[in-house]
């Protein structure tokens, strides 16, 4: 009798556990009929708000394209740089399109796709800052967005120079650009794709030097343990490249030939 009770209890547990075990993010998105994309909207031309205050840019179009492939609606959830990973951890979003570098430390928290966009870091500087080269940034007030690779890399340099006190961290890149435009900071570190729209926007801001750290291969982020979802994202990125859509959108928003996504010497 005791054996039969244990067997029955085990059967109930197995029955209850089966649906959860089979469920994954791909099923959830399809069943819910909506793809929730976390997107940084102060990162023009990759993510921004248009003249009608609607989300626009390269990342927004990628969100829309993936939703169309899944035959669901797209929902853009605006996030700051620091909110990208928490949006996945708290299930506020299903996916992050937000120029996220796939560091080993971050991979302990979320899962990453193959690269979908490539950037290098560049400064925008005050017109009268006197900064024309990387070396000119020594002794200057430098700003970056909190929780970004530019912040992490610049702080290493600032420590070497003994200038941590000159660093300014802001919650958004828009705040960084405004600080430079108003003379509160001498330089702001962003990506190469943001330099032209920002220098066009502010008369007091001009393009600055490229930063010395390596090219930034960025990934789409999703739940760390959901391999099926990450596999689908990888397939979607591959399809965007093969179909020519990646090249089309990069030229539309950045105005240049789309960079090769493959990392030299790495097999995907």
From TrEMBL:
Keywords: Signal. Residues 34-257 form the Solute-binding protein family 3/N-terminal domain. This is Amino acid ABC transporter substrate-binding protein. SMART domains: PBPb (SM00062). The lineage of its organism: Bacteria, Pseudomonadati, Pseudomonadota, Alphaproteobacteria, Hyphomicrobiales. InterPro entries: Solute-binding_3/MltF_N. Residues 1-23 form the signal peptide. Pfam families: SBP_bac_3.
């Amino acid at each position: 009798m005791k054996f039969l009770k244990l067997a029955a209890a085990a059967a109930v547990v197995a029955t209850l556990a089966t649906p959860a075990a089979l469920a994954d993010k791909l099923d959830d998105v399809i069943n819910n009929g909506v793809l929730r994309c976390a997107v940084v909207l102060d990162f023009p031309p990759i993510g921004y708000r248009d003249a009608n205050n609607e989300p626009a840019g390269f990342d927004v179009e990628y969100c829309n394209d993936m939703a169309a492939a899944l035959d669901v609606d797209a929902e853009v959830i605006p996030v700051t740089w620091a909110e990208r990973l928490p949006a996945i951890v708290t299930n506020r979003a299903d996916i992050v399109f937000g120029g996220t570098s796939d560091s080993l430390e971050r991979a302990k928290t979320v899962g990453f796709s193959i690269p979908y966009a490539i950037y290098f870091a560049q400064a925008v500087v005050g017109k009268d800052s006197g900064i024309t080269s990387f070396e000119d940034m020594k002794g200057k007030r430098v700003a970056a967005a909190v929780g970004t690779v530019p912040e992490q890399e610049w702080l290493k340099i600032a420590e070497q120079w003994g200038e941590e006190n000159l660093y300014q961290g802001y919650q958004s890149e828009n705040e960084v650009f405004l600080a430079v435009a108003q003379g509160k900071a001498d330089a702001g570190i962003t990506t190469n794709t943001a330099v032209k729209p920002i220098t066009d926007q502010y008369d007091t801001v001009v393009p600055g030097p490229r930063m010395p750290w390596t090219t930034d291969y960025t990934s789409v982020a999703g739940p760390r343990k959901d391999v099926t979802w990450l596999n689908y994202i990888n397939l979607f990125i591959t399809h965007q490249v093969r179909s020519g859509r990646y090249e089309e959108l990069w030229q539309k928003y950045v105005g240049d030939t789309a960079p090769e996504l493959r990392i030299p010497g790495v097999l995907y």
